[in-house]
């Protein structure tokens, strides 16, 4: 009889332990779920967006488009005046600003990834970030902030790290410093090139609102073959949006070739746009390939002739 009582007690204890463990697991799951939802806010953005980056950074009004894209380097001593001018042009044009903030802290060829992270952690660039945050805060409309893009491409930028944790630490550090100033004004974009290892550089559900992707096509990359279509390239990369459950903006889009080839490629992209999973916006990179970002096939010119560029207006209703 005592044996049966002992067995019964052990069962009750075991059952209670299981219940307690289940409760703890449920609480942990809820905490993770809450954190993943933290940045899944209702983004104050148009449901469909299209824009152009112009090499002049002037953000001049583009008829029929609703986004403007500018690149700004921390190494540029005129970054604040250029950023103010860019945002003023966006305000005048009524376009959503996409600000690509590049943490170059000296000449790109001499910057060290390790030194960059160390300097950021030590507060060496806090003054610059405070001033940038104050400029961003004064803009009357939400701003998409794209920090340290294409981070997974080896040796392309000084913010490439073999250890992804170093990059995520850098991203989260800048996110914390700028968000403390500009807060909800900023819509944060994590923007890899879209390689197979890109997910390793994910900085966290709580610090990303949008995913940006780079989509370029050149006949030099596939000699003797047709240009890969926008849809084909996008579908090779859109798994990141599905994995992290974030809307996607094709933050850099470019095609090189003859004007006829470019026009055909752009029209295909426009026709495919609404059929592509998760795609919310497209920004064309209307400039030549930057000299400090060389590519294996040599120099490329992504610029469109004005009549071809005018097709981008068809992306919007």
Word description of this protein:
With 317 residues, the protein is of the alpha/beta class. It has 2 domains: 1-37; 48-315, Glycosidases (TIM Barrel). 40% of the residues lie in helices and 17% in strands. It contains 9 helices and 8 strands. The chain has helices at residues 2-37, 79-93, 113-122, 126-138, 164-182, 230-237, 239-244, 259-273, 306-309; strands spanning 49-54, 67-73, 96-102, 143-147, 186-190, 210-217, 248-255, 279-286. Helix 5 (164-182) links the parallel strand 4 (143-147) and strand 5. Helix 2 (79-93) packs parallel to helix 4 (126-138), helix 3 (113-122) runs parallel beside helix 5 and helix 4 (126-138) crosses helix 5 (164-182). The termini are far apart.
CATH architecture group name of the largest domain? Alpha-Beta Barrel
Uncertain regions: pLDDT < 50 for 5+ in a row? Answer: 3-7, 18-38
Biggest pleated-sheet summary: 8 strands, parallel, barrel
For the largest beta sheet, what order do the strands appear in spatially?
A: 1-2-3-4-5-6-7-8
CATH topology of the largest domain: TIM Barrel
Q: What is the CATH C-level name of the largest domain?
A: Alpha Beta
Distance between the termini: 80 Å
Average pLDDT taken over every residue: 86
State which percent range the strand residues make up.
15-25%
Number of discrete domains: 2
Derived from helix and strand composition plus strand pairing, the structural class reads alpha/beta
Number of strands: 8
Instruction: Identify the overall geometry.
Output: globular
SSE pattern: HEEHEHHEHEEHHEHEH
Helix content: 25-40%
Please tally the helical runs, counting DSSP H or I stretches of 4 or more residues: 9
CATH superfamily of the largest domain: Glycosidases
């Amino acid at each position: 009889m005592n044996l049966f009582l002992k067995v019964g007690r052990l069962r009750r204890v075991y059952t209670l332990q299981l219940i307690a463990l289940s409760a703890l697991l449920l609480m942990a799951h809820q905490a993770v779920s809450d954190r993943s939802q933290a940045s899944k806010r209702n983004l104050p953005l148009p449901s469909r967006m299209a824009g152009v980056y112009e090499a002049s950074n002037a953000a001049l009004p583009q008829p029929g488009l609703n986004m403007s894209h500018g690149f700004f380097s921390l190494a540029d001593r005129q970054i604040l005046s250029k950023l103010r001018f860019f945002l003023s042009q966006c305000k005048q044009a009524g376009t959503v600003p996409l600000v690509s903030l590049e943490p170059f802290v000296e000449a790109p060829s001499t910057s060290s990834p390790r030194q960059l992270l160390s300097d950021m952690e030590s507060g060496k660039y806090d003054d610059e970030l405070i001033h940038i945050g104050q400029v961003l805060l004064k803009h009357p409309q939400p701003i998409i902030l794209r920090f340290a893009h294409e981070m997974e491409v080896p040796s392309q930028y000084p913010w490439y790290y073999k250890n992804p944790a170093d990059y995520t630490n850098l991203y989260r550090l800048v996110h914390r410093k700028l968000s403390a100033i500009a807060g909800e004004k900023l819509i944060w974009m994590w923007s890899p090139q879209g390689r197979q290892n890109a997910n390793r550089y994910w900085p966290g559900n709580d610090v990303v609102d949008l995913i940006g992707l780079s989509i370029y096509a050149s006949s030099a990359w596939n000699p003797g073959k047709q240009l890969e279509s926008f849809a084909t390239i996008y579908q090779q990369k859109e798994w990141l949006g599905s994995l992290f459950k974030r809307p996607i903006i094709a933050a850099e889009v470019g095609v090189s070739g003859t004007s006829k080839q470019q026009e055909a490629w752009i029209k295909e992209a426009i026709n495919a746009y609404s059929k592509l999973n998760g795609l919310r916006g497209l920004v064309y990179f209307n400039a030549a390939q930057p000299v400090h970002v060389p590519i294996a096939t040599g120099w490329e010119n992504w610029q469109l002739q004005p009549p071809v560029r005018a097709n981008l207006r068809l992306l919007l209703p």
